[in-house]
Amino acid sequence: MAGMKVTIKPAILNWILQKIQFENVASSTLELLTKWQSGEKTPTFNQVEDVSRKINIPFGYFFLDTPPVENCPILEYRTVNSVAIPEPSRNLIDTYDQMVEMQEWMTEYLQENGYEELNFVGIVTLDTPVNIIVKAIREHLNLNVNWFASCKTATEAYKLICSRVEEIGVLVMSNGIVGNNTRRKLNVDEFRAFTVVNKNAPLIFINNCDTETGKLFSIMHEFTHVLLGVNSLYNDGYGHEENRSNIEKICNAAAAEVLVPSAIFNFLWDKTDETISAHMETVAGYFHCSRYVIARKALDQHKISRKTYDETVKELDKQFKAWEAEQSKNKSGGGNFYRTMSSRLDHRFIRALAQSAEEGRTQYTDLFRMTNTNRRTFQKLLNEIGGAGW
């Protein structure tokens, strides 16, 4: 049985190769799949089992007649309807499913404990002027116009916004991998963030494989979706406008204005004699934003031409790809594991889980599964966020 040759339909192999295009698959595994696809080699039962485990695609899928239709509802809310991403990766599907399970648990917990629905979810519409949406963001997050001046880095700014979003009842989760599996890295080319909206516990997930400035824009963009009451799968390539929906233009404009207020931007831009490239870097540093955001603001404020903007975006794309390549080479396993884990999970969610388990309303097995922990590691996680022991 182990060495028995098996047949896999070409349509299934094509589907599998498409499915793993955004995943960190070993070159040897990819080469084997490609040879099966071309007919150069015939798979054995054991090989299929091994490949199935490595690429996280169910073993039985390999022997279907036609590719399965996998339900990932968030896909219909893609920022950009790109033909290059016709199907969600297994990493996205599994991450989405994990987040929805957490959200459903938290929603039930809040309802059972008498918490009221959040009044800011869906408080604005697509007909609301952008300046009114910006005002709503600042009011609900308690932000001054120049809030960024109190932050020294993009990381500080990102953490500040995340904490403000969490404080008003939005679940904020993040990760750069699926669960704790370091071999299953999330790909920013597929998605930078997503939001699943409900009235009790709206959830924002941020892809930690993005840059710090990228994550800052994503959290603000996704919070705008919460105010609109509309789900989001944010797969936008910064600076690229093709196939972008009206709702995304609104969210981008509102997020950009909160992060880079036009009046302050114009004042800074007009008081220097630097080259445009150097000036963008200086201004980006002041606002703790990416140069993509600054370039777009400069275009909208008529400080640069469309030609200069397009050239800038093209150059920034090259730099981002170089940064991604460098990040993939420098795989760091250092740092405090529990601090990293606590930064991925919403602290209110962790405390609620602990309380519910302590009261006997949630099974410990469910708690450990949702948080990818065990009794020992969950206790250390609680200690890290300043929660009570149990």
Describe the structure.
With about 400 residues, the protein is α+β, with helices and mostly antiparallel strands. It folds into 4 domains: about 10-70, no CATH class; about 75-260, no CATH class; about 260-325, no CATH class; about 335-385, no CATH class. The protein is built from 16 helices and 6 strands. The chain has helices at about 10-20, 25-40, 45-55, 90-110, 130-140, 155-165, 210-230, 245-260, 260-270, 275-285, 290-300, 305-330, 335-345, 345-360, 365-370, 375-385; strands at about 170-175, 175-180, 180-185, 195, 205, 230-235. The strands form 2 sheets. Strands 1-5-4-6 form a 4-stranded mixed beta sheet, with helices on both faces. It is globular, with a radius of gyration of 23 Å. The protein starts with 9 loop residues before the first helix and ends in a 5-residue tail after the last helix. The mean pLDDT is about 90.
Please specify the SSE layout and strand pairing.
Layout: H1 10-19, H2 27-38, H3 45-55, H4 90-112, H5 130-141, H6 154-167, E1 171-175, E2 177-178, E3 181-185, E4 193-196, E5 203-207, H7 212-228, E6 232-234, H8 246-259, H9 262-270, H10 276-287, H11 291-300, H12 306-329, H13 337-344, H14 347-358, H15 364-371, H16 375-385
Parallel strand pairs: 1-5
Antiparallel strand pairs: 2-3, 4-5, 4-6
Helix pairs in contact: 1-2, 5-8, 6-7, 7-8, 10-11, 11-12, 13-16
